[in-house]
Amino acid sequence: ISGLETAVREHYDLILNMDMIKDMTDNLRINHSALIDGLVPEKISYGLITEVCKAFVRRGNTLAYLPKLLEILEAMQRAGENKTAEEIAEYADSRIRTRENVKIWLQEREKKQLSK
Q1: How far is it, in rounded angstroms, from Cα 68 to Cα 102?
Q2: What is the spatial distance between Cα 66 and Cα 49, in angstroms, rounded to a whole number?
Q3: For residue range 25-49, what is the model confidence (pLDDT) as tens digits?
Q4: Which of 61, 64, 67, 87 lies at a C-alpha separation of 20 to 30 Å from 100?
Q5: Max CA-CA distance within the chain?
Q6: Cα distance between residue 24 and residue 56, in whole Å
């Protein structure tokens, strides 16, 4: 199974699709309704979110940051910025890769490794 898990992680950008993004945003709607309601898909399409998420994942990120990614997308759209999915992912990556976020991510990774 570890080989399969590795393959999925390495090629997640190829597996990710709009149905998966819809499911993720529907799940986020439960705890983050203020973020999702009126935004997805009304202002930001599942297609755009999918393309940005694929680019974001290719940069070595995780979709655990999807709520923050959606906030960034919404702010860029509100500002009238017309960027490609790659440019949005690059900008989001620079905003998310703060010292505090990396510290949290490393702590979570350590917890998972200890629980194995």
Answers
A1: 14
A2: 9
A3: 999 999 999 999 999 999 999 999 9
A4: 87
A5: 46
A6: 15
